[in-house]
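ok so for the tutorial part 2 we go from a plain amino acid sequence to predicted C-alpha coordinates. step 1 is just haveing the sequence, like this:
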Amino acid sequence: MTRVLVQVLLLGLTTLALLHPGAAEQCATVVEDHEWQGNYIANFSSQTAVPFKGLDIVFTFDGPVTGMSYFEGSTELIDDTHVRLINNDKFYETGAFVHFGFSVSFNGDTKPLVVAIEMSGQDACDGTLAWTTESPYVQPCEPTGMGRYDYAQALCMSILFYEAQRSGHLPEDQRVTPWRWDSALDDGSDVGHDLTGGYYDAGDHVKFGFPMAYTATVLAWGLLDFPQGYAAAGQTEYGRAAVKWATDYFLKAHTAEYELYGQVGKGSLDHGFWGRPEDMYMDRPSMKIDKDAPGSDLAGETAAALAAASIVFKDVDSAYSAELLGVAEELYAFADEYRLEYHNSITDAADFYRSWSGYGDELLWGALWLYRATGDDTYLTKAQAAWDDFSLGEGALQFSWDDKKAGAYALGSLVDPSNTKYADALKAFLTYLKNDAQYTPGGLVFLDPWGSNRHAANVAFISLWAAKYGDPADAAANREWADGQLGYILGDFGHSFVVGFGVDPPSHPHHRSSSCPIPPQSCFENSWGQNQPGPNPHTLYGALVGGPDASDGYTDVRTDYQHNEVACDYNAAFSGALAAMVELN
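step 2 — the prediction. this is what the C-alpha coordinates look like for a chain of 585 residues:
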Protein backbone atom coordinates (compact mmCIF):
# COMPACT_ATOMS: atom_id res chain seq x y z
CA MET A 1 0.00 0.00 0.00
CA THR A 2 1.44 3.39 -0.96
CA ARG A 3 1.92 6.18 1.54
CA VAL A 4 -0.76 8.27 -0.22
CA LEU A 5 -3.29 5.45 0.08
CA VAL A 6 -2.39 4.98 3.74
CA GLN A 7 -2.88 8.70 4.37
CA VAL A 8 -6.26 8.68 2.63
CA LEU A 9 -7.34 5.60 4.54
CA LEU A 10 -6.23 7.02 7.87
CA LEU A 11 -8.02 10.28 7.13
CA GLY A 12 -11.21 8.31 6.53
CA LEU A 13 -10.66 6.27 9.68
CA THR A 14 -10.08 9.40 11.75
CA THR A 15 -13.39 10.75 10.50
CA LEU A 16 -15.06 7.43 11.24
CA ALA A 17 -13.60 7.31 14.73
CA LEU A 18 -15.18 10.68 15.50
CA LEU A 19 -18.53 8.96 15.18
CA HIS A 20 -17.64 7.06 18.38
CA PRO A 21 -16.46 9.70 20.90
CA GLY A 22 -16.63 7.27 23.84
CA ALA A 23 -12.95 6.27 23.81
CA ALA A 24 -13.40 3.19 26.00
CA GLU A 25 -16.70 1.95 24.58
CA GLN A 26 -16.54 -1.25 22.56
CA CYS A 27 -18.41 -1.36 19.22
CA ALA A 28 -21.89 -2.78 19.62
CA THR A 29 -21.21 -5.34 16.87
CA VAL A 30 -18.27 -6.86 18.78
CA VAL A 31 -18.89 -9.28 21.65
CA GLU A 32 -15.93 -10.52 23.68
CA ASP A 33 -15.64 -14.27 24.16
CA HIS A 34 -12.78 -14.66 26.65
CA GLU A 35 -9.50 -13.01 27.69
CA TRP A 36 -6.12 -14.12 28.97
CA GLN A 37 -2.71 -12.51 29.53
CA GLY A 38 -2.24 -9.93 26.74
CA ASN A 39 -4.89 -11.49 24.48
CA TYR A 40 -8.61 -11.73 23.96
CA ILE A 41 -10.97 -13.42 21.52
CA ALA A 42 -14.15 -11.75 20.29
CA ASN A 43 -16.88 -12.20 17.68
CA PHE A 44 -18.19 -9.73 15.14
CA SER A 45 -21.80 -9.87 13.92
CA SER A 46 -23.66 -7.39 11.76
CA GLN A 47 -26.09 -7.22 8.86
CA THR A 48 -25.10 -5.68 5.55
CA ALA A 49 -26.88 -2.73 3.98
CA VAL A 50 -25.30 -3.31 0.57
CA PRO A 51 -24.03 -6.42 -1.21
CA PHE A 52 -20.33 -7.05 -1.59
CA LYS A 53 -17.99 -9.74 -2.79
CA GLY A 54 -14.99 -10.08 -0.55
CA LEU A 55 -14.75 -8.76 2.99
CA ASP A 56 -12.56 -5.68 3.46
CA ILE A 57 -12.82 -4.47 7.06
CA VAL A 58 -10.74 -1.97 9.03
CA PHE A 59 -10.82 -2.08 12.84
CA THR A 60 -9.90 0.99 14.89
CA PHE A 61 -8.76 0.42 18.49
CA ASP A 62 -8.61 2.93 21.36
CA GLY A 63 -5.11 1.76 22.24
CA PRO A 64 -2.13 0.04 20.64
CA VAL A 65 -2.31 -3.60 19.54
CA THR A 66 0.62 -5.86 18.73
CA GLY A 67 -1.25 -8.23 16.49
CA MET A 68 -4.61 -9.50 15.33
CA SER A 69 -5.71 -12.82 13.87
CA TYR A 70 -8.78 -13.24 11.67
CA PHE A 71 -9.89 -16.85 11.63
CA GLU A 72 -11.36 -16.81 8.10
CA GLY A 73 -8.83 -14.70 6.22
CA SER A 74 -5.76 -12.51 6.50
CA THR A 75 -4.87 -9.36 8.44
CA GLU A 76 -2.74 -6.32 7.69
CA LEU A 77 -1.40 -4.03 10.44
CA ILE A 78 -1.83 -0.49 9.16
CA ASP A 79 -0.45 1.07 12.36
CA ASP A 80 -0.68 0.22 16.05
CA THR A 81 -4.38 1.18 16.31
CA HIS A 82 -5.70 0.20 12.85
CA VAL A 83 -5.89 -3.33 11.44
CA ARG A 84 -7.32 -4.46 8.13
CA LEU A 85 -9.09 -7.83 7.71
CA ILE A 86 -9.46 -9.33 4.23
CA ASN A 87 -11.29 -12.34 2.80
CA ASN A 88 -11.66 -12.25 -0.98
CA ASP A 89 -13.77 -15.41 -1.16
CA LYS A 90 -16.81 -14.29 0.79
CA PHE A 91 -19.95 -13.00 -0.92
CA TYR A 92 -22.80 -11.36 0.97
CA GLU A 93 -26.09 -10.29 -0.55
CA THR A 94 -28.05 -7.29 0.67
CA GLY A 95 -29.30 -7.80 4.21
CA ALA A 96 -27.14 -10.87 4.86
CA PHE A 97 -25.55 -11.42 8.26
CA VAL A 98 -21.77 -11.32 8.57
CA HIS A 99 -20.32 -13.35 11.43
CA PHE A 100 -16.67 -14.08 12.22
CA GLY A 101 -14.28 -14.48 15.12
CA PHE A 102 -10.92 -12.80 15.72
CA SER A 103 -8.21 -12.53 18.36
CA VAL A 104 -6.28 -9.46 19.54
CA SER A 105 -2.83 -9.30 21.13
CA PHE A 106 -1.59 -6.33 23.18
CA ASN A 107 1.06 -5.27 25.72
CA GLY A 108 0.36 -4.04 29.20
CA ASP A 109 -2.66 -4.27 31.42
CA THR A 110 -5.06 -2.05 29.42
CA LYS A 111 -7.07 -3.97 26.88
CA PRO A 112 -7.51 -2.07 23.57
CA LEU A 113 -11.17 -1.96 22.58
CA VAL A 114 -12.62 -1.80 19.07
CA VAL A 115 -14.11 1.69 18.76
CA ALA A 116 -14.71 1.91 14.99
CA ILE A 117 -15.27 -0.55 12.15
CA GLU A 118 -15.46 0.19 8.45
CA MET A 119 -16.86 -2.78 6.49
CA SER A 120 -16.66 -2.40 2.72
CA GLY A 121 -17.40 1.31 3.02
CA GLN A 122 -20.06 1.00 5.73
CA ASP A 123 -19.92 2.11 9.33
CA ALA A 124 -20.33 -1.27 11.02
CA CYS A 125 -19.74 -0.31 14.62
CA ASP A 126 -22.94 0.87 16.28
CA GLY A 127 -25.21 -2.05 15.46
CA THR A 128 -27.67 -0.07 13.34
CA LEU A 129 -26.77 -1.66 10.00
CA ALA A 130 -29.63 -4.13 10.36
CA TRP A 131 -31.83 -3.91 7.29
CA THR A 132 -35.11 -2.18 7.87
CA THR A 133 -37.87 -2.24 5.30
CA GLU A 134 -40.16 0.57 4.34
CA SER A 135 -43.90 0.32 4.67
CA PRO A 136 -45.37 -2.62 2.75
CA TYR A 137 -45.54 -1.95 -0.97
CA VAL A 138 -48.98 -0.85 -2.06
CA GLN A 139 -49.32 -0.51 -5.80
CA PRO A 140 -50.69 2.92 -6.77
CA CYS A 141 -52.97 1.91 -9.66
CA GLU A 142 -56.52 2.30 -8.39
CA PRO A 143 -59.52 0.84 -10.26
CA THR A 144 -61.13 3.34 -12.66
CA GLY A 145 -63.95 1.42 -14.33
CA MET A 146 -62.80 2.55 -17.78
CA GLY A 147 -63.81 -0.23 -20.15
CA ARG A 148 -64.85 -3.80 -19.57
CA TYR A 149 -61.36 -4.68 -18.35
CA ASP A 150 -60.46 -1.35 -16.73
CA TYR A 151 -57.95 -0.48 -19.41
CA ALA A 152 -56.82 2.62 -17.53
CA GLN A 153 -55.80 0.62 -14.47
CA ALA A 154 -54.06 -1.92 -16.68
CA LEU A 155 -52.18 0.92 -18.41
CA CYS A 156 -51.11 2.32 -15.05
CA MET A 157 -49.76 -1.08 -14.03
CA SER A 158 -48.06 -1.63 -17.38
CA ILE A 159 -46.10 1.60 -16.99
CA LEU A 160 -45.40 0.77 -13.32
CA PHE A 161 -43.71 -2.44 -14.49
CA TYR A 162 -40.94 -0.36 -16.06
CA GLU A 163 -40.04 1.08 -12.67
CA ALA A 164 -39.40 -2.47 -11.47
CA GLN A 165 -36.98 -2.91 -14.40
CA ARG A 166 -34.90 0.19 -13.72
CA SER A 167 -31.15 -0.11 -13.39
CA GLY A 168 -28.86 2.44 -11.77
CA HIS A 169 -29.56 5.04 -9.11
CA LEU A 170 -33.29 5.13 -8.44
CA PRO A 171 -35.01 8.52 -8.08
CA GLU A 172 -36.83 9.76 -5.01
CA ASP A 173 -40.20 9.31 -6.71
CA GLN A 174 -39.54 5.60 -7.38
CA ARG A 175 -42.82 3.81 -6.66
CA VAL A 176 -41.67 0.19 -6.66
CA THR A 177 -40.38 -0.21 -3.10
CA PRO A 178 -39.10 -1.66 -0.83
CA TRP A 179 -37.74 -4.51 -2.95
CA ARG A 180 -35.96 -2.44 -5.61
CA TRP A 181 -32.92 -0.28 -4.77
CA ASP A 182 -29.90 1.23 -6.51
CA SER A 183 -28.04 -1.35 -8.56
CA ALA A 184 -25.30 -1.81 -11.17
CA LEU A 185 -23.70 1.49 -10.23
CA ASP A 186 -20.36 0.42 -11.75
CA ASP A 187 -21.75 -0.24 -15.24
CA GLY A 188 -19.31 1.14 -17.79
CA SER A 189 -16.38 1.35 -15.38
CA ASP A 190 -14.57 -1.32 -17.41
CA VAL A 191 -14.41 1.06 -20.39
CA GLY A 192 -14.15 4.38 -18.56
CA HIS A 193 -17.71 5.55 -19.23
CA ASP A 194 -20.77 6.03 -17.08
CA LEU A 195 -23.23 3.48 -18.43
CA THR A 196 -25.49 3.39 -15.40
CA GLY A 197 -29.24 3.54 -15.87
CA GLY A 198 -31.46 2.05 -18.52
CA TYR A 199 -33.56 -1.06 -18.12
CA TYR A 200 -32.86 -4.65 -17.24
CA ASP A 201 -34.16 -6.60 -20.17
CA ALA A 202 -36.49 -9.22 -18.73
CA GLY A 203 -36.33 -11.61 -15.80
CA ASP A 204 -32.56 -11.24 -16.02
CA HIS A 205 -30.22 -8.28 -15.56
CA VAL A 206 -28.50 -7.75 -18.91
CA LYS A 207 -29.01 -4.38 -20.56
CA PHE A 208 -29.58 -5.29 -24.21
CA GLY A 209 -29.64 -2.04 -26.14
CA PHE A 210 -31.47 -3.30 -29.22
CA PRO A 211 -34.77 -4.39 -27.61
CA MET A 212 -34.49 -1.53 -25.13
CA ALA A 213 -34.42 0.94 -28.02
CA TYR A 214 -37.46 -0.73 -29.61
CA THR A 215 -39.22 -0.47 -26.23
CA ALA A 216 -38.53 3.26 -26.02
CA THR A 217 -39.62 3.87 -29.62
CA VAL A 218 -42.94 2.10 -29.19
CA LEU A 219 -43.67 3.61 -25.77
CA ALA A 220 -43.09 7.03 -27.32
CA TRP A 221 -45.34 6.10 -30.26
CA GLY A 222 -48.22 5.31 -27.92
CA LEU A 223 -47.78 8.61 -26.11
CA LEU A 224 -47.75 10.52 -29.39
CA ASP A 225 -50.67 8.91 -31.17
CA PHE A 226 -52.99 8.06 -28.28
CA PRO A 227 -52.42 11.10 -26.06
CA GLN A 228 -56.05 11.35 -24.94
CA GLY A 229 -55.94 7.77 -23.70
CA TYR A 230 -52.82 8.43 -21.66
CA ALA A 231 -54.30 11.67 -20.31
CA ALA A 232 -57.65 10.12 -19.37
CA ALA A 233 -55.83 7.35 -17.51
CA GLY A 234 -53.61 9.88 -15.74
CA GLN A 235 -50.47 8.22 -17.09
CA THR A 236 -48.91 10.86 -19.36
CA GLU A 237 -46.20 11.93 -16.94
CA TYR A 238 -45.40 8.35 -15.97
CA GLY A 239 -45.27 7.35 -19.61
CA ARG A 240 -42.83 10.14 -20.37
CA ALA A 241 -40.70 9.11 -17.39
CA ALA A 242 -40.60 5.54 -18.71
CA VAL A 243 -39.33 6.78 -22.08
CA LYS A 244 -36.82 9.16 -20.51
CA TRP A 245 -35.29 6.45 -18.33
CA ALA A 246 -34.25 4.74 -21.56
CA THR A 247 -33.27 7.81 -23.57
CA ASP A 248 -31.11 9.21 -20.76
CA TYR A 249 -29.20 5.95 -20.90
CA PHE A 250 -28.88 6.06 -24.70
CA LEU A 251 -27.34 9.53 -24.48
CA LYS A 252 -24.71 8.14 -22.11
CA ALA A 253 -24.16 5.12 -24.34
CA HIS A 254 -23.42 7.34 -27.38
CA THR A 255 -19.82 8.08 -26.40
CA ALA A 256 -18.55 9.37 -29.76
CA GLU A 257 -19.89 10.20 -33.21
CA TYR A 258 -19.40 6.66 -34.46
CA GLU A 259 -19.63 4.83 -31.15
CA LEU A 260 -22.58 3.39 -29.27
CA TYR A 261 -22.54 0.98 -26.35
CA GLY A 262 -25.24 -1.56 -27.09
CA GLN A 263 -24.97 -4.05 -24.24
CA VAL A 264 -23.88 -4.20 -20.60
CA GLY A 265 -23.62 -7.63 -19.05
CA LYS A 266 -22.79 -10.97 -20.58
CA GLY A 267 -25.78 -13.23 -21.20
CA SER A 268 -24.27 -16.52 -20.04
CA LEU A 269 -22.80 -15.05 -16.85
CA ASP A 270 -25.97 -13.17 -16.04
CA HIS A 271 -28.32 -16.08 -16.69
CA GLY A 272 -26.30 -18.24 -14.30
CA PHE A 273 -27.15 -15.88 -11.45
CA TRP A 274 -30.52 -16.04 -9.70
CA GLY A 275 -30.68 -13.15 -7.30
CA ARG A 276 -31.48 -9.50 -6.91
CA PRO A 277 -29.83 -7.01 -9.27
CA GLU A 278 -28.69 -5.20 -6.13
CA ASP A 279 -26.63 -8.30 -5.26
CA MET A 280 -24.90 -8.95 -8.59
CA TYR A 281 -21.24 -9.87 -8.22
CA MET A 282 -20.38 -11.18 -11.71
CA ASP A 283 -18.51 -9.17 -14.32
CA ARG A 284 -20.70 -6.90 -16.45
CA PRO A 285 -18.68 -6.20 -19.58
CA SER A 286 -19.64 -3.22 -21.75
CA MET A 287 -19.92 -3.86 -25.49
CA LYS A 288 -20.10 -1.35 -28.32
CA ILE A 289 -20.39 -0.75 -32.03
CA ASP A 290 -18.10 1.65 -33.87
CA LYS A 291 -16.74 2.23 -37.37
CA ASP A 292 -14.57 -0.88 -37.20
CA ALA A 293 -17.39 -3.03 -35.82
CA PRO A 294 -20.70 -1.38 -36.79
CA GLY A 295 -24.32 -2.30 -36.22
CA SER A 296 -26.89 -0.67 -38.48
CA ASP A 297 -29.89 -2.31 -36.82
CA LEU A 298 -28.83 -1.21 -33.34
CA ALA A 299 -27.85 2.32 -34.37
CA GLY A 300 -30.95 2.69 -36.56
CA GLU A 301 -33.35 1.58 -33.84
CA THR A 302 -31.68 3.80 -31.25
CA ALA A 303 -31.99 6.69 -33.70
CA ALA A 304 -35.71 5.90 -34.03
CA ALA A 305 -36.13 5.86 -30.26
CA LEU A 306 -34.40 9.20 -29.80
CA ALA A 307 -36.28 10.80 -32.69
CA ALA A 308 -39.66 9.61 -31.40
CA ALA A 309 -38.78 10.76 -27.88
CA SER A 310 -37.71 14.16 -29.21
CA ILE A 311 -41.29 14.69 -30.36
CA VAL A 312 -42.66 13.51 -27.00
CA PHE A 313 -40.54 16.12 -25.19
CA LYS A 314 -40.68 18.90 -27.78
CA ASP A 315 -43.26 20.96 -25.90
CA VAL A 316 -42.16 19.75 -22.47
CA ASP A 317 -38.39 20.28 -22.47
CA SER A 318 -37.21 21.84 -25.71
CA ALA A 319 -33.50 21.65 -24.84
CA TYR A 320 -33.72 17.94 -24.04
CA SER A 321 -35.76 17.36 -27.19
CA ALA A 322 -33.12 19.08 -29.30
CA GLU A 323 -30.37 17.01 -27.71
CA LEU A 324 -32.24 13.80 -28.44
CA LEU A 325 -32.84 14.78 -32.04
CA GLY A 326 -29.23 15.75 -32.64
CA VAL A 327 -27.98 12.39 -31.41
CA ALA A 328 -30.72 10.60 -33.38
CA GLU A 329 -29.50 12.17 -36.62
CA GLU A 330 -25.90 11.30 -35.80
CA LEU A 331 -26.76 7.68 -35.05
CA TYR A 332 -28.86 7.31 -38.18
CA ALA A 333 -25.96 8.58 -40.28
CA PHE A 334 -23.75 5.99 -38.55
CA ALA A 335 -26.27 3.24 -39.28
CA ASP A 336 -26.57 4.23 -42.92
CA GLU A 337 -22.89 4.82 -43.63
CA TYR A 338 -21.39 1.75 -41.91
CA ARG A 339 -23.67 -1.19 -42.63
CA LEU A 340 -23.57 -4.47 -40.75
CA GLU A 341 -25.85 -6.49 -38.47
CA TYR A 342 -24.91 -5.60 -34.93
CA HIS A 343 -24.61 -9.16 -33.63
CA ASN A 344 -21.45 -9.48 -35.75
CA SER A 345 -19.91 -6.76 -33.61
CA ILE A 346 -21.54 -7.45 -30.25
CA THR A 347 -21.27 -11.19 -30.61
CA ASP A 348 -22.80 -12.03 -27.23
CA ALA A 349 -26.12 -10.65 -28.51
CA ALA A 350 -26.32 -13.30 -31.23
CA ASP A 351 -27.76 -15.91 -28.87
CA PHE A 352 -30.31 -13.55 -27.38
CA TYR A 353 -31.34 -10.64 -29.62
CA ARG A 354 -30.01 -11.26 -33.10
CA SER A 355 -32.04 -9.29 -35.64
CA TRP A 356 -33.09 -12.05 -38.00
CA SER A 357 -34.85 -9.55 -40.23
CA GLY A 358 -31.58 -7.73 -40.92
CA TYR A 359 -31.06 -3.98 -40.70
CA GLY A 360 -33.11 -2.80 -43.68
CA ASP A 361 -36.28 -2.40 -41.61
CA GLU A 362 -34.42 -0.26 -39.05
CA LEU A 363 -33.09 1.99 -41.83
CA LEU A 364 -36.68 2.46 -43.06
CA TRP A 365 -38.17 2.81 -39.57
CA GLY A 366 -35.48 5.21 -38.35
CA ALA A 367 -35.77 7.39 -41.46
CA LEU A 368 -39.54 7.69 -41.05
CA TRP A 369 -39.22 8.69 -37.40
CA LEU A 370 -36.58 11.25 -38.26
CA TYR A 371 -38.79 12.67 -40.99
CA ARG A 372 -41.66 12.93 -38.50
CA ALA A 373 -39.35 14.71 -36.05
CA THR A 374 -37.63 17.04 -38.53
CA GLY A 375 -39.78 17.42 -41.66
CA ASP A 376 -36.57 17.04 -43.65
CA ASP A 377 -37.38 15.41 -47.02
CA THR A 378 -33.93 13.83 -47.05
CA TYR A 379 -35.27 11.21 -44.66
CA LEU A 380 -38.19 10.37 -46.95
CA THR A 381 -35.65 9.78 -49.69
CA LYS A 382 -33.67 7.47 -47.39
CA ALA A 383 -36.86 5.66 -46.43
CA GLN A 384 -37.66 5.08 -50.12
CA ALA A 385 -34.16 3.79 -50.73
CA ALA A 386 -34.42 1.31 -47.85
CA TRP A 387 -37.88 0.21 -49.06
CA ASP A 388 -36.51 -0.52 -52.52
CA ASP A 389 -33.12 -1.96 -51.57
CA PHE A 390 -34.50 -4.45 -49.04
CA SER A 391 -37.91 -5.22 -50.61
CA LEU A 392 -39.64 -4.10 -47.41
CA GLY A 393 -43.13 -4.02 -48.85
CA GLU A 394 -43.28 -7.79 -48.71
CA GLY A 395 -43.31 -10.41 -46.01
CA ALA A 396 -44.40 -8.68 -42.79
CA LEU A 397 -45.69 -11.43 -40.50
CA GLN A 398 -45.39 -9.70 -37.13
CA PHE A 399 -44.32 -6.48 -35.43
CA SER A 400 -41.56 -6.88 -32.87
CA TRP A 401 -38.17 -5.82 -31.54
CA ASP A 402 -36.73 -7.71 -34.50
CA ASP A 403 -39.03 -6.86 -37.41
CA LYS A 404 -40.28 -3.27 -37.72
CA LYS A 405 -41.85 -3.48 -41.19
CA ALA A 406 -45.49 -3.45 -40.04
CA GLY A 407 -44.81 -0.47 -37.79
CA ALA A 408 -43.16 1.31 -40.70
CA TYR A 409 -46.24 0.70 -42.85
CA ALA A 410 -48.39 2.47 -40.27
CA LEU A 411 -45.95 5.30 -39.61
CA GLY A 412 -45.26 5.82 -43.32
CA SER A 413 -48.96 6.08 -44.10
CA LEU A 414 -49.19 8.89 -41.54
CA VAL A 415 -46.12 10.95 -42.43
CA ASP A 416 -46.12 10.30 -46.21
CA PRO A 417 -49.81 9.88 -47.10
CA SER A 418 -49.33 10.68 -50.79
CA ASN A 419 -47.21 7.54 -51.11
CA THR A 420 -49.96 4.91 -51.02
CA LYS A 421 -47.54 1.99 -50.77
CA TYR A 422 -47.48 2.35 -47.00
CA ALA A 423 -51.26 2.34 -46.55
CA ASP A 424 -51.60 -0.54 -49.01
CA ALA A 425 -49.00 -2.61 -47.17
CA LEU A 426 -50.65 -1.84 -43.82
CA LYS A 427 -54.05 -2.97 -45.11
CA ALA A 428 -52.50 -6.18 -46.50
CA PHE A 429 -50.82 -6.91 -43.18
CA LEU A 430 -54.04 -6.45 -41.20
CA THR A 431 -55.91 -8.63 -43.69
CA TYR A 432 -53.30 -11.35 -43.22
CA LEU A 433 -53.75 -11.17 -39.44
CA LYS A 434 -57.52 -11.56 -39.67
CA ASN A 435 -57.71 -14.18 -42.41
CA ASP A 436 -54.48 -16.14 -42.73
CA ALA A 437 -52.53 -16.04 -39.48
CA GLN A 438 -52.54 -18.96 -37.04
CA TYR A 439 -54.82 -18.78 -33.98
CA THR A 440 -55.07 -20.79 -30.80
CA PRO A 441 -58.38 -22.59 -30.28
CA GLY A 442 -59.29 -19.88 -27.77
CA GLY A 443 -58.76 -17.10 -30.30
CA LEU A 444 -55.29 -15.65 -29.67
CA VAL A 445 -53.45 -14.83 -32.87
CA PHE A 446 -50.39 -17.07 -32.61
CA LEU A 447 -47.44 -15.49 -34.40
CA ASP A 448 -44.57 -16.98 -32.42
CA PRO A 449 -44.24 -19.61 -29.67
CA TRP A 450 -41.94 -17.32 -27.67
CA GLY A 451 -43.89 -14.55 -26.00
CA SER A 452 -47.15 -15.30 -27.81
CA ASN A 453 -49.01 -12.69 -25.74
CA ARG A 454 -46.42 -10.09 -26.63
CA HIS A 455 -46.83 -10.70 -30.35
CA ALA A 456 -50.63 -10.55 -30.10
CA ALA A 457 -50.45 -7.28 -28.12
CA ASN A 458 -48.00 -5.81 -30.65
CA VAL A 459 -50.28 -6.36 -33.60
CA ALA A 460 -53.35 -5.36 -31.56
CA PHE A 461 -51.63 -2.00 -31.19
CA ILE A 462 -51.09 -1.77 -34.94
CA SER A 463 -54.74 -2.64 -35.53
CA LEU A 464 -55.94 -0.03 -33.03
CA TRP A 465 -53.63 2.52 -34.59
CA ALA A 466 -55.20 1.75 -37.98
CA ALA A 467 -58.66 2.08 -36.43
CA LYS A 468 -57.80 5.69 -35.59
CA TYR A 469 -55.49 6.74 -38.42
CA GLY A 470 -56.09 4.24 -41.23
CA ASP A 471 -58.91 3.61 -43.71
CA PRO A 472 -62.17 4.70 -42.01
CA ALA A 473 -64.00 1.89 -43.76
CA ASP A 474 -61.96 -0.64 -41.79
CA ALA A 475 -61.94 1.21 -38.46
CA ALA A 476 -64.70 -0.77 -36.72
CA ALA A 477 -63.31 -4.14 -37.82
CA ASN A 478 -59.79 -3.22 -36.77
CA ARG A 479 -60.94 -2.05 -33.36
CA GLU A 480 -63.12 -5.12 -32.81
CA TRP A 481 -60.31 -7.50 -33.76
CA ALA A 482 -57.83 -5.80 -31.41
CA ASP A 483 -60.40 -5.79 -28.62
CA GLY A 484 -60.62 -9.56 -28.96
CA GLN A 485 -56.86 -9.99 -28.67
CA LEU A 486 -56.60 -7.77 -25.61
CA GLY A 487 -59.64 -9.49 -24.13
CA TYR A 488 -57.88 -12.86 -24.36
CA ILE A 489 -54.83 -11.40 -22.60
CA LEU A 490 -56.84 -9.66 -19.88
CA GLY A 491 -59.26 -12.43 -19.00
CA ASP A 492 -61.61 -13.70 -21.70
CA PHE A 493 -60.04 -17.15 -21.51
CA GLY A 494 -60.67 -17.48 -17.78
CA HIS A 495 -57.65 -15.77 -16.32
CA SER A 496 -55.46 -12.74 -16.77
CA PHE A 497 -51.95 -12.91 -18.21
CA VAL A 498 -50.96 -9.65 -16.50
CA VAL A 499 -49.33 -9.96 -13.09
CA GLY A 500 -51.44 -8.37 -10.36
CA PHE A 501 -54.35 -7.55 -12.66
CA GLY A 502 -57.76 -9.12 -13.14
CA VAL A 503 -58.94 -12.63 -12.35
CA ASP A 504 -56.42 -15.33 -11.39
CA PRO A 505 -53.35 -13.49 -12.72
CA PRO A 506 -49.86 -15.07 -12.86
CA SER A 507 -48.13 -15.18 -9.49
CA HIS A 508 -44.93 -17.06 -10.42
CA PRO A 509 -43.40 -14.99 -13.26
CA HIS A 510 -39.88 -15.88 -14.34
CA HIS A 511 -38.33 -12.76 -12.82
CA ARG A 512 -35.42 -12.77 -10.44
CA SER A 513 -35.80 -9.68 -8.29
CA SER A 514 -39.51 -10.13 -7.57
CA SER A 515 -38.89 -13.79 -6.71
CA CYS A 516 -36.37 -12.97 -3.98
CA PRO A 517 -37.50 -12.38 -0.38
CA ILE A 518 -36.76 -9.19 1.50
CA PRO A 519 -33.45 -9.50 3.40
CA PRO A 520 -32.24 -11.02 5.62
CA GLN A 521 -33.77 -14.03 3.88
CA SER A 522 -31.41 -15.18 1.17
CA CYS A 523 -32.27 -15.67 -2.49
CA PHE A 524 -29.28 -17.97 -2.91
CA GLU A 525 -29.81 -20.63 -0.27
CA ASN A 526 -31.04 -23.74 -2.10
CA SER A 527 -31.95 -21.47 -5.04
CA TRP A 528 -34.78 -20.15 -2.89
CA GLY A 529 -36.12 -17.58 -5.32
CA GLN A 530 -36.17 -19.76 -8.43
CA ASN A 531 -37.37 -23.04 -6.99
CA GLN A 532 -39.56 -22.24 -3.99
CA PRO A 533 -43.11 -23.38 -4.75
CA GLY A 534 -45.04 -20.35 -3.54
CA PRO A 535 -45.85 -17.14 -5.39
CA ASN A 536 -43.16 -14.54 -5.91
CA PRO A 537 -42.84 -12.59 -2.65
CA HIS A 538 -43.28 -9.33 -4.53
CA THR A 539 -46.08 -8.74 -7.02
CA LEU A 540 -44.62 -7.55 -10.32
CA TYR A 541 -47.67 -5.43 -11.12
CA GLY A 542 -48.42 -4.89 -14.79
CA ALA A 543 -45.94 -7.35 -16.26
CA LEU A 544 -47.28 -9.23 -19.29
CA VAL A 545 -46.09 -12.85 -19.17
CA GLY A 546 -45.09 -14.75 -22.30
CA GLY A 547 -48.37 -16.54 -22.80
CA PRO A 548 -49.88 -19.80 -23.99
CA ASP A 549 -48.72 -22.36 -26.48
CA ALA A 550 -50.52 -22.99 -29.75
CA SER A 551 -53.18 -25.06 -27.98
CA ASP A 552 -53.91 -22.45 -25.27
CA GLY A 553 -51.79 -24.43 -22.82
CA TYR A 554 -50.34 -22.35 -20.02
CA THR A 555 -49.07 -23.12 -16.52
CA ASP A 556 -48.00 -20.47 -14.04
CA VAL A 557 -44.53 -21.94 -13.40
CA ARG A 558 -41.50 -19.75 -12.64
CA THR A 559 -39.00 -21.97 -14.43
CA ASP A 560 -40.96 -21.92 -17.71
CA TYR A 561 -39.28 -18.89 -19.24
CA GLN A 562 -40.78 -19.50 -22.67
CA HIS A 563 -44.31 -18.95 -21.41
CA ASN A 564 -43.89 -17.17 -18.07
CA GLU A 565 -40.99 -14.75 -18.42
CA VAL A 566 -41.61 -11.03 -18.68
CA ALA A 567 -39.67 -8.43 -20.67
CA CYS A 568 -39.57 -4.71 -21.39
CA ASP A 569 -40.48 -5.22 -25.03
CA TYR A 570 -43.53 -7.32 -24.01
CA ASN A 571 -45.17 -4.30 -22.39
CA ALA A 572 -44.26 -1.61 -24.93
CA ALA A 573 -46.97 -1.95 -27.59
CA PHE A 574 -49.26 -3.45 -24.94
CA SER A 575 -49.14 -0.09 -23.13
CA GLY A 576 -50.00 1.77 -26.33
CA ALA A 577 -52.86 -0.63 -27.05
CA LEU A 578 -54.31 -0.05 -23.57
CA ALA A 579 -54.09 3.72 -24.08
CA ALA A 580 -55.87 3.25 -27.41
CA MET A 581 -58.66 1.28 -25.73
CA VAL A 582 -59.12 4.05 -23.17
CA GLU A 583 -59.21 6.66 -25.93
CA LEU A 584 -61.39 4.79 -28.42
CA ASN A 585 -63.97 3.55 -25.92
